[in-house]
């Protein structure tokens, strides 16, 4: 506690403004628990940049923690590009303080003699990723906490290719940041270095999105869509992209269309949660819509609900939408003619079905750690290969490589193209998905997240991972565990034969068990939230579409048995 108090007292010095000092003094005198959580560590970069609760302290998002990041990046850019005119582009979402924090970040860059393009109003994350390359910038920054609760904000860093920072840049940048004292942040803005941007970049992004997401679907007027932006940034792009692509039958949920950092109509602005789309689904049932789509606050994730075999709207998971989107893109590429250099991308905790799809179409499936920065790195590391598309289980997808992060703008259009095309052909999005299960095997996934907040929660999550490693699971629902993949040690071991293999991707705190029947379980602490996540995948052969309902029920029961077995139900 004494070290925490000592750290807090450094925030009472002349380096910090009077408002900050008043708030720190209040914590010291009145709220020990909040003081501890605000100062017990430095906020760290995770899988999706830096996210945290807004407030004073080293473990909070504020002008000083973000200013320090920005000063460190400025110093790093000058080392890496000593003779270049440096340029950055900055965007921000609908969250409280995003606009003022974005302005602070712009001011620090400008104070370091770096040209800044700052979006004049809130914009989507995919628009920021696109803008990095479009404006030929060295770095991009977006102020967002994605789908986290209202008290959060965040800071994501993009490199020259439009993808988020990865090794070696990430560790080098973090080392540069950690060298700094808060007193070394240059807040003295040079306003002549800051240029507001909007229409020109918007037009380029929207045009590129329509170009990459359109596939001449038939009978678009006959395809009825309900869309909700969940109070986020997608309202600036998705309705316009759908309109330009020829979709006239689109109902926007007006009570969720206005950007609002309180997200007043939802418990969580996360399209992974069925509750978040409940208003849109009700509207869709009322008007007989074919599809519901909702996006998270910064518009990189999308949730999709479509009509199931009983005609009811059903929210699909990220694995299901990823599989069908990827298959559709592969089919389009096949019709043009494969050139032999194609690949698709996925992650280690996503459905194994992506590999089955790759086998079906005889293309490569590259698999990476969780986080779209790794999929962007795949593209960067394979300049002579053609990236068809890819995604991860957490409701994110990338259509081609013109945006180097998950892109709910273009993916929304792609989903509508698939749905409209299927309907015109007497099928549906859901039926096309079942057909894919017949082709590749029926894989069903489930995610379980446990929230553990604060310092004690972090310790609990750490201990859970240690326990899983020291006391490995030996069977899953009666099937022997065959492989244990430990991404911390980069080793995969066949516990039946004793065979060991090296895992040739960067180390990460992930443990995966694979049973003899193909059942897969992964344990992974979240890189952006105080959670530990458990990912499950079970599978069976599906001989014909008519067998789907029975097989679906059997796999659901299997997952429930596994959850009970592991005390996770």
Automatic annotation (TrEMBL):
The keyword Nucleus does not apply. Its EC number is 5.4.2.2. Its cofactor is Mg(2+). It comes from Cellulophaga geojensis KL-A. SUPFAM superfamilies: Phosphoglucomutase, C-terminal domain, Phosphoglucomutase, first 3 domains. InterPro entries: A-D-PHexomutase_a/b/a-I, A-D-PHexomutase_a/b/a-I/II/III, A-D-PHexomutase_a/b/a-II, A-D-PHexomutase_a/b/a-III, A-D-PHexomutase_C_sf, A-D-PHexomutase_CS, Alpha-D-phosphohexomutase_SF. It comes from the Bacteria. Keywords: Isomerase, Magnesium, Metal-binding, Phosphoprotein. PROSITE patterns: PGM_PMM. It is an enzyme of class 5 (isomerase). Belongs to the phosphohexose mutase family. This is Phosphoglucomutase. PANTHER family: PHOSPHOGLUCOMUTASE 2B-RELATED, PHOSPHOMANNOMUTASE 45A. One of its GO terms (molecular function) is phosphoglucomutase activity. Residues 44-182, 212-305, 317-437 form the Alpha-D-phosphohexomutase alpha/beta/alpha domain.
């Amino acid at each position: 506690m004494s070290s925490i108090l000592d750290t807090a007292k450094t925030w009472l010095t002349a380096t910090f403004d009077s408002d900050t000092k008043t708030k720190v003094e209040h914590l010291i005198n009145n709220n020990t628990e909040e003081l501890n959580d605000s100062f017990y560590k430095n906020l760290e970069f995770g899988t999706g940049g830096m996210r945290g609760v807004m407030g004073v302290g080293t473990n909070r998002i504020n002008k000083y923690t973000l200013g320090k990041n920005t000063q460190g990046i400025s110093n790093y850019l000058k080392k890496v590009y000593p003779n270049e005119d440096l340029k950055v582009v900055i965007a921000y979402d609908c969250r409280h303080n995003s606009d003022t924090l974005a302005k602070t970040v712009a001011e620090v860059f400008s104070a370091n003699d770096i040209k800044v393009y700052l979006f004049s109003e809130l914009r989507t994350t995919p628009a920021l990723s696109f803008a990095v390359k479009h404006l030929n910038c060295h770095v991009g920054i977006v102020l967002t906490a994605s789908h986290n609760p209202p008290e959060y904000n965040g800071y994501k860093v993009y490199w020259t290719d439009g993808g988020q920072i990865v090794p070696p840049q990430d560790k080098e940048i973090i080392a540069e940041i950690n060298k700094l004292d808060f007193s070394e942040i240059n807040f003295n803005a040079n306003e002549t270095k800051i240029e507001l941007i909007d229409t020109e970049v918007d037009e380029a992004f929207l045009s590129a999105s329509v170009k990459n997401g359109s596939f001449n679907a038939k009978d678009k007027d006959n395809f009825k869509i309900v869309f909700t932006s969940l109070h986020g940034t997608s309202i600036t792009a998705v309705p316009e992209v759908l309109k330009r692509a020829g979709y006239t039958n689109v109902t926007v949920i007006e009570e969720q269309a206005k950007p609002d950092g309180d997200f007043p109509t939802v418990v969580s602005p996360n399209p992974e949660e069925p509750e978040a789309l409940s208003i849109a689904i009700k509207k869709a049932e009322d008007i007989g819509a074919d599809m519901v789509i909702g996006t998270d606050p910064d518009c990189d994730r999308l949730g999709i609900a479509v009509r199931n075999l009983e005609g009811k709207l059903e929210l699909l998971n990220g694995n299901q939408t990823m599989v069908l989107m990827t298959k559709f893109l592969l089919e389009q590429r096949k019709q043009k003619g494969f050139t032999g250099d194609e690949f698709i991308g996925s992650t280690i905790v996503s459905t194994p079905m992506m590999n089955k799809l790759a086998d079906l179409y005889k293309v490569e499936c590259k698999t990476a750690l969780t986080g779209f920065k790794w999929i962007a790195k795949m593209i960067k590391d394979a300049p002579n290969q053609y990236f068809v598309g890819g995604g991860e289980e957490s409701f994110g997808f990338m259509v081609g490589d013109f945006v180097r992060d998950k892109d709910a703008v273009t993916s929304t259009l792609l989903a509508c193209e698939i749905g409209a095309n299927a309907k015109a052909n007497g099928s549906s999005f859901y039926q096309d998905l079942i057909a894919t299960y017949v082709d590749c095997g029926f894989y069903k996934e489930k995610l379980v997240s446990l929230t553990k907040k604060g310092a004690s929660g972090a310790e609990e999550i750490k201990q859970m991972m240690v326990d899983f490693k020291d006391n490995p699971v030996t069977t899953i629902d009666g099937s022997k565990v065959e492989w244990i993949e430990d991404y911390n040690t980069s080793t995969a071991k066949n516990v039946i034969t004793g065979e060991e293999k090296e895992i040739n991707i960067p180390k990460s705190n992930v443990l995966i068990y694979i049973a003899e029947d193909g059942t897969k379980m992964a344990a992974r602490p979240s890189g952006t939230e105080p959670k530990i996540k458990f990912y499950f995948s079970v599978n069976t052969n599906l001989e014909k579409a008519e067998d789907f309902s029975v097989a679906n029920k059997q796999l659901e029961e299997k997952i429930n048995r596994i959850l009970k077995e592991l005390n996770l139900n």
